Amino acid sequence: MNILHQATEQELKAVLPEKTAGYIIKARKGEVGLIAGGGGVYEDLYLILMERVNVFVVEQTCPYPEIDHRDQEALHLIAKENGVIVAYCRIFQNGIMYKEASIGRVLVTQAGRKKGYGKLLLIKALEKLSELGETSVKIQAQAYLKSFYESFGFKAVSDVYDEDGIPHLDMVKTER
What region holds the N-acetyltransferase domain (predicted)? Predict the structure, then answer.
């Protein structure tokens, strides 16, 4: 098992409060790879899934299945503050979700909001995809976050549409 990327202290201090750690874990065939820092592998996987349900199902009142068969094919990025997951996203290389690489299930918990976690997650996700040789990334963004994603170079490639009762739009970022 190997760490795909663990944020350095300098990277974290530049963006996040003290006592914060950033991690990437890799899931393959139901087994989760190494998670640096405290806590067990399965405990962190459980906490990731719990936060996804808390944000996407409970907070956003979206009563649709949150856990899907794609988690085993994803790279998972989490940020913790004082040992508690405060932000998460998963990334896919091209050909898994779309012809482009993709980032999805981006969330920042209520306790982690307004602290730069969303920005750090997106930076790290894009860096990792670039390291993997990906040059085009597609997301299904919630419409109210369009300008946030545009600040990273994403461009809308669809009109707004309904996804489980929440306005979304497709956006793509291409390296040039």
Answer: 25-176
Q: Are 84 and 44 in contact (CB under 8 A)?
A: no
Task: Express each pLDDT in 126-140 by its tens digit.
Answer: 998 998 899 999 999
- Ordered domains of the chain (ranges, CATH): 9-174 (3.40.630.30)
**For 70-107, how does the pLDDT look when each residue is reduced to its tens digit (9 = 90+)?**
777 888 888 888 778 888 888 999 999 999 999 988 98
Tokens of 75: 């790279």
SS (H, E, C) 95-150: CCCCCCEEEEEEEECHHHCCCCHHHHHHHHHHHHHHHCCCCEEEEEEEHHHHHHHH
Local structure of residue 57 (DSSP, 8 states): I
Contact call for residues 99 and 92 (beta carbons, < 8 A): no
Reference 157, options 168, 144, 148; nearest CA is 168
Q: Are 87 and 139 in contact (CB under 8 A)?
A: no
The separation between CA 127 and the C-alpha centre of its own chain, rounded to angstroms, equals 12
Q: Helix or strand or coil: residue 88? A: strand
**65 CA to centre of own chain:** 18
